[in-house]
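Chain A, query sequence.
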Amino acid sequence: MKRYVLLFTFTAASIAAIILSGYAGMRSMLHVSAVKVSAGTAEDTVICTGKVESIRGNSIYASKPGIVETVYIKKGEEVTSGQPLMDILPISVSASSNSSSSSSAFSDSNYSGAAQAYAAYLKAMQSGSNSSIPSLPNVNTGDTKTGTKYTLRATASGVVASIAAEAAGAYLTSDSPAVVIRSKDSLQVRLSVDESQAANLRVGQRVQISGVGFKNSSYSGEIKFIASEAKQLISATGQETVVEVLTSVDNPGDDIKPGFTAKAKIITSQRSQVLTVPYEAVGEDASGR
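Chain A, predicted structure.
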């Protein structure tokens, strides 16, 4: 009986010793885990905020003052670059030292009188009544001359924002816009970049644009302008020195509107085929490095 008790005790002690020695050995072993290192693209970015703005329209001027004969477009209509907008009959009025005073609309040598006379002529032409068409005194002679009719064309694609003459017979000057075309891609973002990051910016760098007002969309663009001087802004945290930056907005949708706040991520540099290690695989030594 005692022999069995001793045998059982010895066996139990042996098992316990084996378990304890194995546990101690495991604690002394260096734990190693495998992680996958992949090659990807690394980016350096600048994060800043700003406001969405509308870009001014493209103003188109008549090359010579004159009377509008035909208007081909309407306000709000979409046009393409090179599309005819209106036909203009140029009028030139010059003073003549040999001309005597006259009661005609052309004798005072001013555009206004010429415009009124030619407007009346065009109106009568459009009415279709030959008997009511007034004569044109001094046409191509004397103080008042008409040139060759020319066509005013769109210099950019977009939407017609305003027209100086919406009907034939109107008189156009050459010192104010005849037509204003607003580009469909007529939005930009005005950003304030902290002075500490301004040195990294370059015209042409790509920008990713997001905002709470268009939270379901994200737009891209590029830097179009960087101010040559910094300015000071007063914020909740005090005075900040910033550099103003303008970026384009590529293909803006209906959800992004002028006045919305925007957050921009400017990509200042990109490096391809960079090995990336997962964050959890990075450790530190006893000194915290």
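Helices lie at 2-28, 111-127, 195-198. The chain has three domains: 1-30, 43-55+186-273, 58-182.
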